[in-house]
Amino acid sequence: MHDDPQGNADSARLPEESVHWLSKPLARFLRIEAVAAAVLLFFTVAAVGLANSPWAEAFLGAWETPIGLQVGSLDFVRSITGR
C-alpha cells in the first residue's frame, strides 16, 4: 500500500451521484433564465417609464423609424414595428 503524505485530492473526492448529470445542467439553465428574466423586466419597466414621460413622443416616434436594405432600385424598408 502506498501512503501519500501530501494527500491525493482525487482520492479524497466523493463519487458523484448519478443525479448530477441532470441537476448541474438544470441549475445552469435556471441561472441563465433568471438573468434573462431580470434583463427583460428591466427593459420593460424602462419602456413603460419612457412611454409615460415627457419624452414619450420621441420614444414612440423611434418605433416608426424606417430601417432596411436598399440596393439600386430595389429596397426593403420597414419600420421597427413592421408596418
Automatic annotation (TrEMBL):
Keyword Membrane on entry: yes
InterPro entries: Na/H_antiporter_dom_sf (IPR023171), NhaA (IPR004670)
Keywords: Ion transport, Membrane, Sodium, Sodium transport, Transmembrane, Transmembrane helix, Transport
Pfam families: Na_H_antiport_1 (PF06965)
One cellular component term from this protein's GO annotations in UniProt: membrane
GO biological process, one term: sodium ion transport
TM region(s), chain numbering: 32-51
Organism superkingdom: Bacteria
Protein name: Na+/H+ antiporter 1
Organism: Azotobacter beijerinckii
